[in-house]
Amino acid sequence: MMIHRHFERQRTEPEPKKAKKPIRKRRSRPAGEKTAVFIATRNWYDNMIVSVKSLFCNSDVDRVVLVVEDDEFPVPIPKEVEIINGSDFEFFDRNSPNMSSHFSGLCVSRAAYGYILNDLDRVLSLDSDLVAVDDISGLWSTELDGNYCAGVRDMGISRPGYINAGVVLMDLKKLRDDGITDRMIDLLNRQRRDWIDQDALNECCDGKILLLPTRYNESPVTGRTEHPAIVHYVGVSKTSGSNGQHRHYWDEYAKMSWDDVSKLRAERYGKPLTF
Predict the structure, then answer these.
(1) Over 50: is that where the pLDDT of 13 sits?
(2) What is the tens place of the pLDDT at every residue in 216-239?
(3) Does domain 35-143+164-207 bear CATH number 3.40.630.30?
(4) Alpha carbons 137 and 125: distance in angstroms, whole number
(5) DSSP class of residue 145?
(6) Which of 42, 3, 6 is nearest to 194 (CA)?
């Protein structure tokens, strides 16, 4: 039996506060560049690297951004990976109701991706407890048809159209231009949400969210599919729990060295990693 996590939309103030200015100057990015972003605290670094390796093996992604708690990553990583230290972000007040959640305070920052990644117009946001197991290169070119984002329906939330934030394709430019990034930041600074950035995304983008096939985020809360492209463990143990039958996927990428990843990527996409 599935336990539903009820989502109650609450009324927000008509005029949200303006967020602080972007944290870095907007840079020119190559046309069509495919970028993915992960966010994690130090205790999740090992898991995040497994997720990143799986992504490089199963997509032609050009750049991966890691929002972490350090200026430099503690282990060697390829040049295609960029590090952003999120410890000093000032988008959220230390006393805001969501900073004391059971989730990491850094997690709240996903609502501010429009400013944190102000050099990007589109990004694929991914959780650090998932693995790509089939080619997802075409996901970046998904036609959003005027929607702010795209994701897979979260069946654990009893609200139609509510998506799980583990895999979200975001139109960052539209989120910035239409003031949605500001609204999400303001909402989380004023009102507590059980699922924090996920609730803020669904609430502020309501009516403009494209639903993706389940295979792009198979998990205990999104449902099963015969041929998954992304397996999401939703925080459970990779060897037990409700998604334990997919342990072999996680183990496969956990055992791979960066050299293994680079060789496989070269074979599949002609794009070896650089170090």
Answers:
(1) no
(2) 999 999 999 999 999 999 866 554
(3) no
(4) 14
(5) T
(6) 6
Least confident of 17-21, 85-89, 204-208, 213-217: 17-21
State how beta strands 35-39 and 63-68 pair: parallel
Where do the H-state alpha helices sit in the chain?
45-57, 113-116, 172-177, 180-190, 196-204, 247-254, 258-269
Q: Please choose, from the candidates 141, 134, 148, the residue with its C-alpha nearest in 3D space to the C-alpha of residue 217.
A: 134
Give the single-character DSSP code of 119.
T
pLDDT at 252 over 50: yes
> Two tokens at 75?
């282990």
Query: Which residues touch 61 (CB under 8 Å, ≥6 apart)?
Result: 34, 35, 36, 55, 80, 124, 137, 140
Domain edges within the chain: 35-143+164-207
Whether residue 1 has pLDDT greater than 50: no
The C-alpha atoms of residue 91 and residue 116 are separated, in whole angstroms, by 10
C-alpha 166: how far from chain center: 5
Average pLDDT (251-260) is 97
Look up tokens 């951004």; give the residue. Answer: 65
